[in-house]
Amino acid sequence: MNNLIKTLLAITSSIILSACSGLGGGNISPQQENALGAQQERQVLSKVRLIRSGRLYNAVKNVGSRIARVSGRPDFQWRHHLVDNPRQANAFVLPGGKVFVYSGLFRYAANEAELAAVVGHEVAHALRSHGVKGAARRQKAGLIGALLQVGMGVAGVNPQTAQQVNQVYGQGATLGYIRPYSRQNETEADSIGLMLMAKAGYDPRAALTFWAKFGRQGQRVPEYLSTHPAPASRIANIRRLMPQALAIYKKSRYARRR
Ligand SMILES: [Zn+2]
Fold first, then answer.
1. pLDDT digits over 177-229, tens only?
2. 69: three-class secondary structure by DSSP
3. What are the structural domain ranges in the chain?
4. Residue 100 pairs with which residues in a beta bridge?
5. Is the separation of the CB atoms in 209 and 255 below 8 Å?
6. For position 37, what pLDDT does the model report?
7. DSSP structural state of residue 53
8. Which region among 64-68, 136-140, 189-193, 206-210 has the lowest average model confidence (pLDDT)?
9. 189 C-alpha vs ligand 1 centroid, how far in Å?
10. 98 C-alpha vs ligand 1 centroid, how far in Å?
11. Kind and range of the H or E element at 83?
12. Catalytic residue set
């Protein structure tokens, strides 16, 4: 039975690898991303309550538009929403540049520069189409799982074994195929986000103070199980990029204006 599992996993992983190669960037158009984002935005807006005025709202709008302006994607339909939810210290982005910030995030973001660290990170996800690619990846893994089940049915594999294979496949796909990309995406979003905030004229050192505060409250799961980099590796990555970010910050047109 172990051999059977190994053989099946070898087959499916080779299918996955060949499927992956078709998943590079550039196979979704900006129009498709905008349409997808607009559709998802409507769904989210039907479920959350927005804050549409006040100091925090103005901060989200201001930071959001400054970062959108330096993003190099005027073709995206940028939107910036503040969700009324003081318990959630969170933010996310939808394809095509729809940024949502939860009011709870302001427990950690003490000023616009710290908010810019988060918005820059989210905008970077949108620029790299991480959401769209992640969804395609999960879909593909699910499809392969389903094909595997059908295959085992045809081959007359007994149900218990089939269930075991499915479990092993599910864990393998998550740990080996979906999660590593998620973590790689997080690090990439941190790096690109740092340069974006600097370019928009926000002191990139605020990313260090923000992620340090944010990491202290974070969940303490081992890094390999988490989609988020461990706070220490996140901070180390940002520190490594700081000289480059500071150089961009000093040149930024917003910084000069002050
Ligand atoms: Zn992220």
1. 777 778 889 999 999 999 999 999 999 999 999 999 988 876 444 545 555 66
2. helix
3. 2-257
4. 81, 92
5. no
6. 93
7. S
8. 136-140
9. 6
10. 14
11. strand 79-83
12. 122
